[in-house]
Each structure stands twice: as structure tokens, then as C-alpha cells.
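In this supplementary section we document a worked example of the pipeline. Step one takes a protein sequence of length 325 as its only input; no multiple sequence alignment statistics are reported here. Step two produces a three-dimensional model, which step three serialises into C-alpha cells for compact storage. The input and output of this example are shown verbatim.
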Amino acid sequence: MSNWTATATATEQAEIPVVPSARINSARVLVVGDVMLDRYWFGDVNRISPEAPVPVVRVNKKEDRLGGAANVARNAAALGAQAGLLCVVGHDEPGERIVELLGKSKVAAHLGRDPDLPTTIKLRVLSRQQQLLRVDFEDAPNHEVLLTCLQRFTELLPQHDVILMSDYAKGGLTHVMQMIAEAKRAGKPVLVDPKGDDWDRYRGATLTTPNRAELREVVGQWKSEEDLHERVRKLREELELSALLLTRSEEGMTLFTETQVVHTSAEAREVYDVSGAGDTVIATVATMLGAGVPLVDSIVYANRAAGIVVGKLGTATVDYNELFA
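The serialised model returned by step three reads:
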């Protein structure tokens, strides 16, 4: 176990005001992107296989959770927002399981169904709370289904306050440039959880939320904090990004805007599992923006939420009472 810290210089963690639940309940967040089913198989290891030097896991428990963009939407809904999800899944058992879990999570599902697409699955095998293996099953959706989703996006846009693009490079955001342009014309803030080194497709977004590795793919390795600030400034100006939030694991988070750089450090917490923490961060920011909270303050709430979720196993959520406890 390690310490995961994340710090608010502008607002002290203990002093952040409670946002009334009615304001959060009024926030309407549309999540668009790549969804997946996170499958967990738990078991005991008591021997090594005679076929190869690998542990044999006797599975005694199975659990399914929403992953990718579905986990982002689930996080927004857990906080109390009106969360919608636009995505593509297959006509298969994992796709039906995603539909079922979305219903239980109170997420409004707007799903394109691709009969030829195997729904993305991340299968994790664990023993004694340690992950031993992950197996991925995935493919890209077909063009016709993606065009249908683009049309559906246009229909859903007026019904939401904040648009959130959750990119896992699985093909679900093929038309992200058109979506961002449409949202901007409609005056809606667009938040992007980016992937890969081609950020031109996110041009004009309100906020991107890369981690350190994702940002390095785009701007290269920085030599100092001043160098980092300069590289981010150039990136923001080149791509017309209003703001960039860099999540820095144990170093916290840094928000870069045209007028300021705000670093947020949080109380230290014992880390159990960091998977899905980025989903919690961007979902919390989107929810708070939808509730009328300024961006700088939204980051502080997101930081607190991330500090809570890393203390849970696997992709998890933070609810309203936990955030404001």
C-alpha cells in the first residue's frame, strides 16, 4: 500500500463548502465514448500448474462492473447528477449485462447496437486482493452505427448542460471533432478524457484531463515545472483549449487556464486501487460544472472524490454523502 496525495492551494480541503444536493440533482451530464464491461474473477491460489510455471486460480466469486465511459456516467449518477450515456455495444451477453448495470446505476442509456461487434470486456483475475492477470476482448464498431450515434448526439445535445467525452481509443469517438464543434455552437462546455498523441481531434474543448503519461505523449518530457507550464501553454493555445487539468498521482492535480495555474494537493490516503480514479475526477468536475460550481472549485471536489475512490477495489464510485462527509 502506498500514499496517494492530491492538495488545494486555493481552497483548503476541510473548508470546501457543501453544494446543496438539489443543485447537483439538477446537473445534466451527457457522457459519450467507449464503454466496456469490467469482469472480476476472484479465487484462491494453492498450487502451481504442472503445465507451466503459473499459479492455478480456483475461482469462487465473479463480479461485473461498468467500465470506461459507462463508469464515468455511473460516477456522475452516483453523485446525484442526471447522467446520460451515448455509446455503442454489441448484441451479446456482455452488452446486455451493460444495459442491466446501467439501469441499476440510474444512468439514461442511449445505446447504438452493433450486431457484429463483440462488446469490449476487461477480465481481471484476482487472488487475495492482488491482480494476477488481465485479459482484453475488443474490436471497433462499424461506421454506420457510429453515424447513427452522431445523429443521436445532435438530438440529445439540447437536453444536457455539460458534454463529457471519454476516450479509450476503442473507436467509439470516431466523430469527436464534429461533436465538439456542435457542442461549442450550442454553448455547452465540453470535457475530454484524452487518449493517444493526436489531440487535434479535441480542438476547441473546454477542458482536457490527461494524466502525466498521456500528456507526455503529446508535449514530450518536461525538464522542470516552468518547462511544463510553457509546454502546456503552447498546447492550449495551439488547440484552442480553455483549460487543461493534469492529474499527477501522488503529486496531486494542476489546473492550467489562460489566466492562472492552480495546484491542488489533497489529504494523504491509503491506496487500494487506482483503476478508475480518472473516471471519478472528470465525472465529478462535469457534475459540479453542471451544478453551477466554478471550474477552479470543481477541481477541489474532484480531488477529494479521487482520494476516496482509490481506497476502493476496482472501478468504483463516490456518492454525495461520501464527498461531503
